[in-house]
Amino acid sequence: MRVENNINSNEKDKQTMIFKVGNDQVKLNPGIVRKYLVNGQGAVTDQEIVYFMHLCKSRQLNPFIKEAYLIKYGHEPATMVVARDALEKRAIKNVQYNGKKVGIYVMNKETNELIKRDGTIYIKETEKLIGAWCTVYRKDWENPVSVEVNLDEYIGRKKDGTVNANWTNKPVTMVTKVAKAQALREAFIEELEGMYEQEEVNVNLNDISEAEIITDDIEDIQDNTNEKSNDLTADDIF
Known about the structure:
The chain is of the alpha+beta class and 238 residues long. The protein folds into two domains: 5-82 and 205-237, no CATH class; 87-194, no CATH class. The chain is built from eight helices and ten strands. The longest helix is centred in the C-terminal third of the chain and has 17 residues, at 171-187. Residues 1-12 and 222-230 have low confidence and may be disordered. This is Phage recombination protein Bet. Pfam families: RecT.
């Protein structure tokens, strides 16, 4: 998919970024992002908005059809995630992609033996889930990319510290998704750097509106973003 990008150089619209994703023209500026594309109740900073705009442009993401999300709660740093399974979908389109393997690590409760297992089946009564692994193969690389992740480092928790519903009910699914996302990003870093999926950053996209934004209704909103942020380029960010 060829993407043609250009930034409006008109002085009035110097903060506006216009680029194409497929057949769609995407227009972003800080005012549009603040009004239409911020999820959560937090106040995003100028830097977070500029980063999000450059992420969408450089990675060819259309946030108006929910290919990318900017999420901000309270005073926490903003979180930027991509649509479900976005990394794998992009990797598959790469001509060098040559498949992947995914599995888990479990510990035998009686012997404390750590076992690396192909696939994702384990017996809860006798085994404890410890983590997951993923290996991604490229046709042009002699050695594959292998990633291992610990369950404890990524398990999603609520504000009170208890494990959230997804990680309680589907821990294998969640931790293998983290391993897969990290391995794919490392194997195809030129295309996937900066793109994170919800399981990696403790975000549940089910809590976010999936309604598509009708871009024809969007006003040409200008914003008083600090002009220093306009000097940022994709090279500064990625």
